[in-house]
UniProtKB/TrEMBL annotation, chains A, B:
Broad enzyme group: transferase
Keyword list, A-Z: Detoxification, Transferase
Domain GST N-terminal: 5-84
CDD domains referenced in this protein's UniProt entry, alphabetically: GST_C_Tau, GST_N_Tau
Protein name as it appears in the record: glutathione transferase
Major location category of this protein: cytoplasm
The EC number(s) this enzyme carries: 2.5.1.18
The organism of origin for this protein: Xanthoceras sorbifolium
InterPro entries in UniProt: Glutathione-S-Trfase_C-like, Glutathione-S-Trfase_C_sf, Glutathione_S-Trfase, Glutathione_S-Trfase_N, GST_C, GST_C_Tau, Omega/Tau-like, Thioredoxin-like_sf
Similarity comment text for this entry: Belongs to the GST superfamily. Tau family.
Length: 226, 226
């Protein structure tokens, strides 16, 4: 297991992508040093480590950077084998990766649009978000976690939905989640937030709300100028 | 090794995503049955196998479907270990996956926009395509293939660029590729197209041109009505 001097995580304390990596490292019991990035004044370490996208999170392992949360999770799972996040069977792995891409490309993308818009555009994006969520409602069904009895790769990829999404709805002024329409996703959200390493590693609600308030105000004013 | 009765590839003979899977299967020497899909009249097997996206390619292995070309390649590499496409080292694997995402999200996305637009929008998208390609020019440098001496995962993910991109430029009416600006990518294109299993598995130029002509005409007329 790598010591803190070997493993650095560059992230922010509100970033849903950063927390994916935090939860994965905590799940595996791996020590690391967290380096808080100011996205308005990015460190030279971040710019050197991820010169293409210049985004957090970046995991720096023995001086070598890995970026993009999905790829960092795969890297962690391949490097530290104990408590695997992905199942062993190639077909099940493909299945989990498929839904992880769906979460990022469909659910997150639609909710991002709902958050960044208003009026008719927002109504359309809200509907798309609900449609994407419906697929995930069917996928989880009566299971405790997406992977079964234990939190795994897809749960971690979807984790932002359990905690960040209510703030996205509140600040964005739209509503998708409804326990009567999405009983399985509601149950999953509760199960996920009760996992100790998740529960103990979440941003402060006020800080998160403020970040989203600032972000929404920026997006809507940018839109107006357009 | 699976017999033809076990492995079915649902695809089209012009689809750049389908050929990724063809090349991977050929590279591994795996027999399969190719099932040509008519995208205007999709088979019930396709609709059942990929109910979410309803897209090709889909690999059906012993009755179980796997979709999305990137995930199919990972599945193939994990299921048939001989002649690996991804390197063994987790850091190198992350590196290849990073660039594969870059190819899809940046290079392909920008060239898709250039193809689907005209005028000022097309000029902007052309510039973005060239910017993305510049990063790949630096990444490949003097290497024969992205993975080194042998064709691997990233070469296959980037393969559409070697053969499809000239048609995209021609039909789209824009120009990015220039051997003097991109000497390393030019050399890679030649190396890639000389690999026998690539050379022997490519669509007919006329058919490909016709597909793109129809597609561009549809896109521009849809744009005009907007």
């Amino acid at each position: 297991m790598a010591g803190a001097d070997h493993l650095k995580l560059l992230g922010t304390k509100q970033s849903m992508f950063t927390y994916r990596v935090v939860w994965a490292l905590k799940l595996k019991g791996i020590e690391y040093e967290f380096i808080e990035e100011d996205l308005f004044n990015k460190s030279s370490l971040l710019l050197q480590s991820n010169p293409i996208h210049k985004k957090v999170p970046v995991l720096v392992h023995a001086g070598k950077p890995i970026s993009e949360s999905r790829l960092i999770l795969e890297y962690i799972d391949e490097t530290w084998k104990e408590r695997p996040m992905l199942p062993e069977d190639p077909l099940e792995r493909a299945h989990m990766r498929f839904w992880a891409s769906f979460v990022d490309d469909k659910l997150m993308e639609a909710s991002r649009k709902a958050f960044a818009s208003s009026g008719e555009d927002q109504a359309k994006a809200t509907e798309l978000t609900a449609e994407a969520l419906k697929f995930l409602e069917e996928e989880i069904g009566g299971k405790k976690f997406f992977g079964g009895e234990e939190m795994g790769f897809l749960d971690i990829m979807m984790g932002w939905f359990a905690y960040w999404f209510p703030f996205i709805e509140e600040v964005g002024g739209f509503k998708v989640m409804d326990p009567t329409k999405f009983p399985c996703i509601t149950a999953w959200t509760n199960n996920f937030l009760q996992v100790p390493i998740v529960h103990q590693n979440l941003p402060q609600p006020d800080e998160l709300r403020n970040v989203f308030l600032g972000f929404r105000s920026f997006l809507l004013s940018a839109h107006k100028d357009h």
